[in-house]
Write a structure and sequence with these properties.
globular, 3 domains, alpha+beta, 538 residues, 6-stranded mixed beta sheet, OB fold (Dihydrolipoamide Acetyltransferase, E2P)
């Protein structure tokens, strides 16, 4: 394992870089890793962000959405100008996070790397929606820095944050706090950041703190000189008790601090380097988890040349959900190899493949596998052959995915294939219906709404695949209503939480009644479609 030396400024950059790499792995691998988020505080976003503003959605979207600026608190954008913002995503949370026309938010935007802190890892899978490469102006942090304004938001309400460990009662109150922090001196800002981070990481038991840490936190919260706080934390951390170090190191790493205070922190770490303590290796859980992800991914991605001759055997004898993890890993190695080097062979295999697990999270694997094979086949002639082979697949998710991609390269033929699959009474049928609707066919919306009544509502039964399709339908209807000068659709019926994919029968009737009222007047429009077609991605 590589040893990391401590240089705070370099490490802060490295954390951001590693975060981006992690998400790159999430996009393109199968046995990938989903993240639980240690969200940054609003106080931190206030000082680190490039833009703080109240914005209103003008073009509904998922991973990227267009907004108009209503109120600028920080930044150099013009009032009422349009900007595009990229959402951070979470495998086990909102993979496709819909924002609808007219909704307003208070956001902290970052032009480059928004903070993404990895708290722990759990295994997950590929998410083809994340392969979209849509241009954006700002990115929002993962897990915080994006607050829905209740009066303009009919979706799930976001919890108001805490500020200096006290609950915020309204968006207006949060804006007052933000402005107050921005107007403080550098030393006052350092003090507030330190106190807030101490309250987060040391004052309570939920971050595996010791009683000694909690006692120190009480003492530090009464100190008004940032340099004294740093010194006391430093002396405490250097006592020979390993468990005391990590929460303090989190605070030192994160900041942000003024140049003066940061220089003092750097000097302390320079002192540590001369001792060459073993515990400096992977001193932060961010780096530890990042290294684990890198190692795991490499183990799956690096192809052992001596194994290639056995790959057909692995593909046919083992499965993507083999209870023996070693055999499962060999199956994915074989899949990855054939996807890259022999896509025609893999398309023949995939056309006969069916899921081996009845588990809710595995029913739509065909969508992931077919999307990956088609999208990653760069030779257009071979890509067409792959698509044509998959059109007659046994698994309906593979079949519909091939139809969706066919519409990109042959609209008329692809739409005919989609129409054939509208009869499916499962998630694949909903995928076909949504894709048909995105191409302007109202029959697709009719069928999608019919299927929503039939498909499971519980998250564990529906899975992310179905939930994402419902959210994508919301985005389509929202943009179509705006372009047709019609009222926005009621959306509560299609909003999903972990517990339910539909929020009650009354809400369901609202969306169906809205469609019946306006389906003759509305013109379906997906403003993102042309750009995605150029990229060759759904």
């Amino acid at each position: 394992m590589t040893k990391f030396t401590i240089n705070l400024k370099a490490k802060l950059k490295a954390i951001a870089m590693i975060s981006c790499i992690l998400f790159g792995f999430l996009l393109n691998s199968y046995n990938t890793f989903a993240s639980k988020i240690d969200a940054r505080l609003w106080e931190q976003h206030t000082l680190q962000s490039d833009l703080i503003a109240v914005i209103e959605c003008t073009l509904a979207g998922g991973s990227v959405t267009e907004f108009k600026i209503i109120n600028i608190i920080k930044g150099d954008e013009k009032l009422h100008s349009n900007i595009r913002i990229k959402n951070n995503v979470s495998y086990w949370g909102r993979q496709f996070n819909p924002t609808l026309v007219g909704e307003r938010f208070l956001i902290t935007g970052f032009k480059n790397n928004a903070p993404v802190d990895i708290y722990s890892m759990s295994s997950g899978g590929a998410v083809p929606l994340w392969w979209r490469n849509l241009a954006y102006d700002y990115k929002i942090p993962l897990g915080s820095g994006f607050l829905a304004i209740k009066e303009y938001n009919q979706q799930n309400s976001y919890h108001l944050p805490r500020w200096q460990d006290k609950p915020v009662t309204s968006t207006d109150e949060l804006i007052i706090y933000i402005k107050s922090l921005l107007n403080k001196s550098a030393q006052e800002q350092d003090l507030q950041i330190l106190h807030s981070l101490i309250q987060k990481y040391m004052a309570y038991d939920w971050h595996h703190t010791t009683k000694e840490e909690q006692d120190l936190a009480k003492e530090l919260l009464l100190v008004t000189d940032p340099l004294q706080i740093i010194r006391k934390m430093w002396l405490f951390m250097n006592q020979d008790i390993e468990s005391r170090r990590y929460n303090i190191l989190r605070i030192f790493e994160q900041g942000p601090f003024s140049q003066h205070l940061q220089k003092n922190i750097d000097n302390y770490f320079q002192e540590l380097k001369t001792h060459n303590y073993d515990w400096l290796q992977y001193h932060s859980f961010y780096f530890k988890d990042a290294q684990e992800v890198t190692t795991q991914h490499s183990a799956i991605s690096n192809i052992d040349k001596e194994q290639i001759q056995y790959f057909q055997k692995y593909l046919n004898l083992y499965s993507e959900n083999d209870k023996n993890y070693g055999k499962q890993e060999l199956w994915y190695k074989a899949f990855t190899h054939f996807r890259k080097h022999e896509p025609i062979y893999l398309s023949q295999y995939l056309s006969k493949w069916t899921p081996t697990s009845p588990d809710w999270n595995d029913k739509a694997k065909g969508y992931e596998f077919a999307s990956s094979l088609i999208f990653n086949t760069k030779d257009l002639k071979i890509k067409r052959q792959v698509i044509n082979k998959l059109l007659n697949s046994v698994d309906p998710h593979v079949r519909v995915t091939a139809s969706v991609y066919l519409t990109i390269y042959n609209k008329e033929q692809g739409e005919k294939e989609l129409a054939k699959n509208l009869k499916l009474n499962n998630g694949a049928g909903l995928y076909a219906a949504l894709s048909y609707a995105r191409r302007g066919h109202k029959l697709g919306v009719n069928r999608a709404l019919e299927l929503i009544k039939l498909l499971p509502t519980e998250y564990r039964e529906a899975g992310n695949f179905i939930i994402n399709l419902k959210r994508r339908l919301l985005v389509l209807l929202s943009n179509s209503a705006k372009s047709s000068n019609l009222p926005q659709p009621p959306t509560e019926s299609l909003q999903t939480t972990y517990k339910s994919a539909l929020n009650g029968s009354a809400g369901e009737q609202d969306i169906f009644a809205w469609w019946v009222s306006y389906k003759d007047e509305i013109k379906l429009l997906d403003p993102w479609l042309a750009g995605l077609d150029k990229q060759g991605i759904d």
